[in-house]
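stage 2 :: seqdesign
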C-alpha cells in the first residue's frame, strides 16, 4: 500500500472507531518542546497523526455553572476512546512496517510545571484540525472546542495537512463563561494560574479526582 492510501486507511480506521477529526503534520521543529521521556525515543519519528473525538453537545449542555458527574464520566469515556483509537492506529502502522508511539490522551508526566509528553493542541493546530482560540484551546469549525485530542508519532512520511486559516473573529462567548476571568481578548494573556486554581477547586469540592471544568468548552460549540 502506498503512503497516500495508507493515510486514507488510517483515517477510515479512526473514523470507524468514533474519531471526528484526523490530520497529519511534521514534528521535527516541535521536538524541543517534548518531554525528555520521548525526546530521544522519538527522534526517528518525524510525523504526527492528530486525532480528535467530539464531545456530546447534549452532555455539555447539562453543565450549569460547574462541572457534573455526567461530564466527568463523559470525559473519562472520551479519553478511553482516544487511547483506543491511537493504539489501533499504532498497531496498524506496525502491520505496515512502520514505527509508532501512541501518546496518552490525558496524562500529566511532570506535575511542576504541569506537562505531558507533548502538546496535543499544538500538534492538532499544525495538522489543520483547527485554530488556537481565545480560550487557549483548539477550536474546530464544526465542533468548536468540544473536541478532545490524541497524537500518534510515526516514522511514516504521510502527507502533512495545511493549518487552518480560520480564527475566533468577533466571537467572545468564552470570556463571560469563565468564572475566574482567565480568558482574555488576546490568547497570550490567558491566565493559567487562575484556571488551574478553579479546576482544582471544582475537583476538591466534588471529589472528581480529575481536573475538569468544561465551562469554556460549553461556551464554544462550533457550527453543529
Ligand atoms: C496538564 C493539562 C491541563 C492543566 C494545564 C497545564 C498547562 N501547563 O497547560 C489544567 C489542569 C489547568 C488543564 C485545564 C484544562 N484542560 Co487540559 N490538559 C493538560 C494536558 C494533560 C497537558 C498540557 C501540557 O502539557 N501543557 C504544557 C504546555 C507547554 O503545552 P500547551 O499548554 O498544550 O500549549 C503551549 C504551546 O503548545 C503553545 N501553542 C502552540 N501552538 C498552539 C496551538 C494551540 C491550539 C494552543 C492552545 C497552544 C499552542 O502555547 C501553549 C503555551 O505555551 C493536555 C493533554 C496534552 N498532552 O496535551 C490536556 C488538554 C490540553 N486539556 C484539555 C482540556 C479540554 C482542558 C479543560 C477544559 C478541562 C476540562 N477537561 O474540563 C481545561 C481548559 C483550560 C484552558 N482553557 O486552557 C484538552 C484540550 C482540548 C482542546 N480542544 O484544545 C487537552 C488537549 C486534553 C485532550 N486529550 O484533549 N489542563
Ligand atoms: S467561544 Fe468564541 S472566542 Fe471563545 S474560543 Fe470559541 S470561537 Fe473563540
Ligand atoms: S477550564 Fe474553567 S476556569 Fe479554566 S479557562 Fe475554562 S472556564 Fe475558565
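stage 2 :: out
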Amino acid at each position: 500500500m502506498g503512503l497516500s492510501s495508507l493515510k486514507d486507511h488510517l483515517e477510515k480506521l479512526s473514523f470507524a472507531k468514533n474519531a471526528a477529526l484526523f490530520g497529519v503534520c511534521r514534528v521535527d521543529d516541535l521536538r524541543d518542546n517534548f518531554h525528555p521521556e520521548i525526546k530521544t525515543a522519538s527522534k526517528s519519528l518525524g510525523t504526527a497523526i492528530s486525532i480528535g473525538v467530539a464531545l456530546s453537545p447534549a452532555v455539555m449542555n447539562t453543565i450549569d455553572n460547574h462541572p457534573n458527574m455526567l461530564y466527568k464520566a463523559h470525559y473519562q469515556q472520551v479519553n478511553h476512546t482516544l487511547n483506543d483509537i491511537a493504539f489501533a492506529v499504532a498497531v496498524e502502522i506496525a502491520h505496515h512496517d512502520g514505527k509508532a508511539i501512541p501518546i496518552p490522551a490525558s496524562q500529566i508526566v511532570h506535575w511542576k510545571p504541569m506537562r505531558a509528553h507533548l502538546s496535543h493542541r499544538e500538534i492538532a493546530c499544525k495538522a489543520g484540525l483547527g485554530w488556537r482560540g481565545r480560550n487557549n484551546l483548539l477550536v474546530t469549525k464544526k465542533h468548536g472546542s468540544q473536541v478532545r485530542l490524541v497524537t500518534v508519532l510515526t516514522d511514516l512520511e504521510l502527507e502533512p495537512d495545511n493549518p487552518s486559516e480560520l480564527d475566533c473573529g468577533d466571537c467572545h462567548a468564552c470570556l463571560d463563561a469563565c468564572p475566574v476571568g482567565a480568558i482574555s481578548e488576546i490568547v497570550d494573556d490567558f491566565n493559567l494560574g487562575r484556571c488551574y486554581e478553579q479546576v482544582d477547586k471544582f475537583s476538591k469540592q466534588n471529589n472528581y479526582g480529575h481536573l475538569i471544568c468544561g465551562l469554556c468548552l460549553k461556551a464554544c460549540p462550533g457550527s453543529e
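stage 3 :: structure notes
- The chain has a mean pLDDT of 97.
- The longest strand covers residues 47-54.
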